TrEMBL record:
GO-annotated cellular components: plasma membrane
This protein's UniProt keywords: Membrane, Transmembrane, Transmembrane helix
UniProt key word Cytoplasm: no
Keyword Transmembrane attributed: yes
TM ranges: 43-63, 83-104, 125-152, 172-193, 200-220, 254-272
One GO MF term attached to the UniProt entry: ABC-type transporter activity
Domain of life: Bacteria
PANTHER family noted in UniProt: INTEGRAL MEMBRANE PROTEIN-RELATED, MEMBRANE PROTEIN
Biological source species: Microbacterium oleivorans
Protein name per UniProt: Putative integral membrane transport protein
Length: 277
């Protein structure tokens, strides 16, 4: 009996070989990509984004080219305006996808495994932000190319061409950046609230509900002008300004567009550091 106990004790005290694997930042980013793309909700969201954006672009192109000549002369009608027009709708899908990218881990408890494998919580947030933003950038770029193929024949029969000197690609660049910032805004709300329904509600409220509410005060007269002015400092308003008229208040719109996701991610990082998973 004594010999058996000593043998077990010796076995327990024997040194174990160190694992050759280390979780560096590249592997952390890869693990976050695997977690995001193995969710069916991710592919549903991306599919809805592609179909919604392409369909709206097609409708806008068809409607604008069917308008009378005197009305179209007063409008900015070109292929680019049709391609970026779905932004006000697809931004909701981007924000919801960003929120679900983290709240799902809190609902299943996977966040504990994530933080155990990588105790540096800021690195976890940064890795998720990189994957989510890259996903929306690629998706928006692919969607825009599809929309271009769809609307070009419609506008081409009416004298529009993509090599027109008056046509600028700047709105498309801002549309791609805007979709990434909307997703990061949702991701930050997810880290802050840690609940899927709450994070989605907060994201939709900021991107969609607040602009509608503030626009209602335009009937209130000068006494509510301060609230109407705040409308220009909403992320959706900044994105709209950059994609429809990039030369007007560009600096302000860029700051507003980047400040919202930055604030939500910083708040999420602060909460992640001080609260248990």
């Amino acid at each position: 009996m004594t010999t058996t106990i000593d043998t077990r004790a010796a076995g327990l005290s024997a040194p174990t070989a160190a694992s050759p694997y280390r979780l560096n930042f590249v592997r952390l980013v890869r693990s976050e990509a695997l977690k995001l793309f193995t969710l069916r909700s991710t592919w549903w969201s991306l599919g809805v984004t592609v179909l919604l954006a392409t369909g709206i672009s097609l409708l806008v192109a068809a409607v604008t080219t069917s308008l009378p000549e005197e009305i179209r002369a007063q409008m900015t009608v070109n292929p680019m305006s049709a391609v970026v027009s779905p932004l006000q709708f697809t931004m909701l899908v981007a924000g919801i996808l960003g929120a679900m990218a983290i709240t799902g881990e809190y609902s299943t408890g996977m966040i504990r495994s994530t933080l155990t494998a990588e105790p540096r919580r800021g690195a976890v947030l940064l890795a998720k932000a990189l994957i989510v933003s890259a996903t929306l950038i690629v998706t928006t770029l692919v969607t825009s190319l599809i929309s271009i193929l769809v609307v070009t024949p419609i506008f081409g029969s009416d004298g529009f061409a993509w090599d027109d000197a008056e046509l600028t690609w700047i709105p498309l660049v801002w549309a791609i950046i805007s979709m990434a910032t909307f997703a990061l805004l949702g991701l930050g709300c997810g880290f802050l609230i840690r609940n899927g329904a709450g994070a989605i509600a907060a994201t939709v409220g900021i991107l969609f509900v607040l602009p509608i509410v503030m626009s209602l005060f335009s009937f209130g007269g000068e006494s509510w002008q301060w609230l109407i002015d705040l409308y220009n400092y909403l992320p959706s308003s900044a994105a709209s300004g950059l994609t429809t008229n990039p030369t007007n208040e560009t600096v302000r719109n860029v700051i507003v567009l980047l400040a919202w996701p930055a604030a939500s991610l910083l708040g999420g990082w602060a909460v992640l550091r001080v609260r248990d998973a």
